[in-house]
Amino acid sequence: MHRRTHIIWNCNIILAMFTETAVVYNMDAYLASMPLWFQQKEQLSSLGMVMGVVILATMFGGFAAGSLLDRFGTRMVQGVSLVVMLFAGMATPFAQSWMEMMVLQSVRDFTCAVGIVACGMRVRAILPSDHLEQLRGLGQLNIWSYAASALFAWIGPVLLVHSLGWWRWLGPIITILGLLEVVLNKYDYRPEKENQSAGVWDWDIFKLVTPVLGISIAYGVVTTYL
Questions:
Q1: What is the 8-class DSSP label of residue 97?
Q2: Closest CA to 153 of 217, 59, 226, 84
Q3: What is the 8-class DSSP label of residue 158?
């Protein structure tokens, strides 16, 4: 039992979850900071509409991820997603209008959703092949996803209020580290296309990415209606 626990948390799993943490920061820290950004820019009247668009972008990203992974594999999809997050993260602090922020945040959250699903596929392939061990491993990783998402949802506004410099650069720095891990790690995974069923949603992967996507969407809904 102890031996299998160590297998679940091997080096490849830790690296993959580090990359997912970079994605989670991009999604939750910036999303949670948006109300304060809109307040500082005196554009709170547009916040509800912007959050609604961002929520839709997140959902579309999650559903589009399957076809992208089938076609290009996890390594390329994760790499491109992190590059988009990097540029969006560098551009976001310089946005001056609600329209600019809506576009940047929507693009970021779309790619974040794709990147999180890619992380889920990657981790699923690394986990032990035994079904019960996979379920146990996914459960442990779900706890990490919940904790990271909740932490960054709290850190985002704190950084923006106390240090615009940290809010501006911490996201890109973390994203670069995640991108470096994906570049150096040559492991790639393409979902098996059984019965020509490319793009079919894998519900076990959905279980892994649900915590982060769920918290982000719930936070956006609450913010929109408050």
A1: S
A2: 217
A3: H
Q: Provide the token pair at 162.
A: 């106390």
CB-CB contact of 41 with 96 (8 Å): yes
Residue 136 identity? R
Tokens 């992380």 found at: 119
Highest mean pLDDT pick, 60-64, 192-196, 210-214:
60-64
**Of 193, 58, 208, residue with least CA distance to 120:** 208
CB atoms within 10 A of CB 12: 15
Question: What whole-number distance in Å separates Cα of residue 10 and Cα of residue 2?
Answer: 13
CA distance 65 to 115: 8
pTM of the predicted model, to two decimals? 0.78
For residue 52, give both structure tokens. Answer: 């609604």
pLDDT tens figures, 81-99: 999 999 998 998 888 899 9
For 61, which DSSP code?
Answer: H
Distance from chain centroid for Cα 159: 19
- What is the average pLDDT value for the chain, to the nearest integer? 78
pLDDT score of 108 = 92
Checking phi first, is residue 10 left (phi over 0); if not, alpha (psi -120 to 50) or beta?
beta
